[in-house]
Structure prediction request, 304 residues.
Amino acid sequence: MDKKANKMLLLSTLACTMLLVTGIFSLAAGEVGYVGSEKCKECHEEIAASHAKSFHAKAWTGKGEGYGCESCHGPAGDHVNNPSRETIISFGKESKQTAGEKSARCLSCHSATPSVSFWDMGRHKREDVDCSRCHSIHKQSRPEVSEPETCFLCHKDIKRDANRQSHHPIIEGKVKCSDCHNPHGTLSHGMIKAENINQLCYKCHPDKRGPFIWEHPPVEENCLTCHTPHGAKSSKLLIQKRPNLCENCHNGRHPGTPYDATAGFNGSASPSTKLKFVGRSCLNCHNQIHGSNAPGSAGKSFTR
Ligand code: HEC
Ligand code: HEC
Ligand code: HEC
Ligand code: HEC
Ligand code: HEC
Ligand code: HEC
Ligand code: HEC
Ligand code: HEC
Ligand code: HEC
Ligand code: HEC
Prediction:
């Protein structure tokens, strides 16, 4: 069995276990205020009909009374006697419940879904973004999230970056926000899907991983010393134009003090033909900026 199949098996086993647990819970709770889905149809005919075609309704087929409207909306005993938004868990804009109360309904099953298991560590939970802000349960047959549109609703600054001249191909659909982030939360900083920044970048840019004979320390340390993840005004997602970028750290090096016939390259007496490149870019010569395996001084200075 391959890894993916294994994961699917694990997922469905977990889901089944949780269903069982919730099922028992719901049935037991039936005594304290659950009325069953049939009852809802009396007043919410349209939405009940559309819900029957939803992903969850299908996933729950044959599971019995414990699985239905109240799995998400909570026990409705009070609600049917005194119908209002106050007496039921609702998810829309005018909901009277807290984000925590809403998410708790979904988590009663999905705290066991592996990708959701670090919800409590995530930024969205802290910012009161509940599950239904991203997942539409009644509208679609599958409660998947359209990216990047859904994310852009709140992350205008990222939208702006993603439209800059140089950007990861997010709007082109080649890279998704969720390729790099787990919006539910992770153990790592920034909800990224890796232990740290560099491990994330290596997933898709393995050539930058090395090991190199000659390593450029900032590259090993953090790719974001020079790059920005979403988009930049400078080419190649660089935080700054060259040579300014390099001169943050290499101030006063040879290009800092222009050489001429008397003060040649590297202090040599003879004028260097390399002089004509200086005005352009450090990368014209130091083109192996992420590290080099070439022997000798050319490797050491990342020119080869
Ligand atoms: C006797 C009629 C009646 C029954 C039965 C009933 N509801 Fe309601 N429900 C209402 C009314 C009235 C409202 C308030 C609508 C409003 O304020 O616009 C409401 C509101 C809601 C809302 C909030 C809607 C919103 O726009 O935010 C949800 C969710 C809801 N009901 C779910 C249920 C579920 C689930 C059941 C079955 C377990 C159920 N209702 C049974 C009459 C009923
Ligand atoms: C898997 C969770 C889930 C189940 C099951 C579920 N709902 Fe909902 N319901 C939601 C969410 C989330 C929303 C907010 C709108 C959306 O996501 O589509 C919602 C919205 C509503 C609304 C408000 C109308 C609106 O468009 O905002 C009503 C009324 C409602 N549900 C009734 C029901 C009834 C009746 C059932 C059973 C037939 C049911 N729901 C089953 C999660 C659920
Ligand atoms: C009673 C248990 C239960 C509740 C409550 C519940 N779900 Fe689910 N959900 C499931 C099951 C079972 C599946 C199908 C198996 C799976 O993918 O885990 C599922 C699948 C999903 C999926 C994955 C669909 C896909 O693309 O594979 C999403 C997203 C989801 N649920 C979101 C929610 C949200 C949001 C809520 C709360 C509004 C919620 N669920 C409430 C049981 C539940
Ligand atoms: C900020 C937006 C956002 C919020 C909030 C959010 N989700 Fe998701 N969810 C996503 C995206 C995007 C995906 C698809 C991720 C992927 O493919 O890796 C997803 C996928 C899922 C899946 C399918 C997971 C799988 O591995 O197949 C489930 C289940 C789910 N979410 C449940 C929830 C629950 C429960 C909550 C609330 C506790 C929640 N989500 C809150 C954006 C969100
Ligand atoms: C309902 C609004 C909302 C939606 C939709 C939303 N976010 Fe957020 N998100 C926030 C808020 C608020 C913050 C905290 C402030 C900030 O960093 O902008 C945040 C923070 C983040 C962070 C920073 C995490 C950290 O630890 O600093 C990431 C990454 C993120 N969101 C990714 C996403 C992705 C990916 C999506 C789409 C799948 C998404 N968000 C959809 C509101 C939202
Ligand atoms: C190529 C990987 C990648 C993609 C794709 C990506 N991000 Fe990020 N994102 C990152 C990294 C790396 C950080 C920095 C995390 C840190 O500070 O530790 C970050 C940071 C963030 C932050 C925190 C605030 C900030 O500006 O630094 C938010 C919010 C965010 N991303 C949202 C998104 C959204 C929304 C999308 C999709 C439109 C997205 N990201 C796509 C890698 C990515
Ligand atoms: C999910 C895969 C993925 C991850 C993770 C990823 N990238 Fe990329 N990256 C891409 C793709 C796809 C391109 C576009 C390649 C192309 O068009 O040839 C790209 C392009 C780039 C470019 C060139 C941009 C340009 O304007 O030409 C840079 C620089 C870059 N990535 C840096 C990073 C850094 C730094 C990280 C870690 C924060 C990272 N990438 C993480 C997929 C990824
Ligand atoms: C010291 C600054 C610096 C650091 C740190 C850095 N880069 Fe770069 N990177 C550059 C420069 C400068 C370019 C542009 C090269 C060019 O124009 O030929 C570049 C270009 C790229 C490109 C696009 C061109 C190519 O070579 O594929 C990718 C992808 C990339 N870097 C990924 C990474 C990753 C991944 C890391 C972390 C492991 C990283 N960079 C760390 C300076 C840096
Ligand atoms: C965040 C700081 C930082 C940035 C930005 C940076 N470097 Fe470096 N660079 C270093 C450090 C630290 C060393 C190692 C110095 C040592 O070993 O003496 C180094 C080493 C080098 C070396 C090899 C020096 C030798 O010993 O031969 C070259 C060449 C170099 N960098 C070029 C560049 C270029 C070109 C850029 C711009 C694309 C750049 N660096 C950006 C910090 C930086
Ligand atoms: C015309 C080609 C060329 C250009 C342009 C160039 N360099 Fe160099 N650089 C070299 C060569 C060749 C060496 C190695 C000299 C040696 O080994 O004696 C070197 C050495 C270095 C060193 C290590 C030498 C030392 O002083 O320890 C650093 C740091 C460096 N360059 C940074 C830069 C930066 C930053 C830029 C852009 C502002 C730049 N270089 C532009 C060719 C160039």
